[in-house]
Design a protein that fits this description.
alpha/beta; globular
């Protein structure tokens, strides 16, 4: 028998960066479970294509081209979601700059690139949380899942700005969980290990990909579907008394 604790049927969930990479997997999986998903991604064409695909499969998705670094764009996305479905039950802050960043020494990162990574990976999370908060408060609660990275537990080199931004997600999550607890809004972090998403496959050389499984308890590559169960858990009623926490999924490479 299916447990109602994990039932997402009818939930309205915003997924940022939801048209590509891991976000595409999340959007497909959540609509497949009966959730209504706003696909918020900077690539409008990919948003439209994925929303159409989900619609043909019987799911419900709203394409919302969104630059998460722009407060006005994020606000429009939240308003469009409310106009379509009348509520926002959850937010998955998945949008991030990563695969387009070259792997290079920290002192070779220029100021503009550093600022751009922080704008998308940290400021974007802040803006999206702020945009959905009033509606969640009116409803009496909600769920926010911020996506970090296993890099922060290992100090993985050569993308210092990305690793720093993902470490910031942990601090943001913990402090925001304290502030939103009185409003019955849970704020948690999902931290993936190195995952063979389409964006990683397109930006990593074969030797790097082959080495990614080293040190894991499970001796196989991590794939996007490995993260879906943890995401469902964090979005479901099973975690109604869980906030400020980090769920790390990496096949046992880093243990806490």
């Amino acid at each position: 028998m299916n447990s109602p604790l994990f039932d997402l049927q009818g939930r309205v969930i915003v997924v940022t960066g939801g048209a590509k990479g891991l976000g595409k997997t999340y959007s497909r999986a959540l609509t497949g479970l009966g959730a209504k998903v706003t696909i918020a991604d900077v690539d409008g064409a990919e948003c439209d294509a994925l929303a159409a695909e989900i619609g043909k499969s019987g799911g419900e998705a709203l394409a919302a081209a969104t630059d998460v670094t722009r407060a006005a764009a994020v606000q429009r996305m939240a308003e469009a979601t409310i106009a379509r479905w009348g509520r926002i039950d959850a937010l998955v802050n998945n949008a991030a700059l990563m695969s387009v960043l070259p792997r290079r020494a920290w002192h070779q990162i220029d100021e503009d690139e550093w600022d751009r990574v922080m704008a998308v990976n940290l400021k974007g999370v802040f803006l999206c949380c702020r945009a959905v908060y009033p509606q969640m408060k009116r409803q009496g609660g909600g769920k926010i899942v911020n996506v970090s990275s296993g890099r922060i537990f290992e100090g993985t080199p050569f993308r210092l700005h990305y690793t720093t931004s993902k470490a910031g997600i942990i601090g943001l999550t913990r402090a925001l969980a304290r502030e939103l607890g009185p409003d019955n809004i849970a704020v948690n972090t999902l931290s993936p290990g190195f995952t063979l998403s389409e964006t990683q496959l397109g930006s990593s050389d074969p030797a790097y990909l082959a080495a990614a499984s080293e040190g894991r308890a499970f001796k196989r590559p991590q794939v996007p579907d490995d993260l879906v169960g943890a995401l469902i858990f964090l979005l479901s009623d099973a975690t109604n008394f869980m906030t400020g926490q980090t769920v790390h999924v990496d096949g046992g490479r880093s243990m806490h």
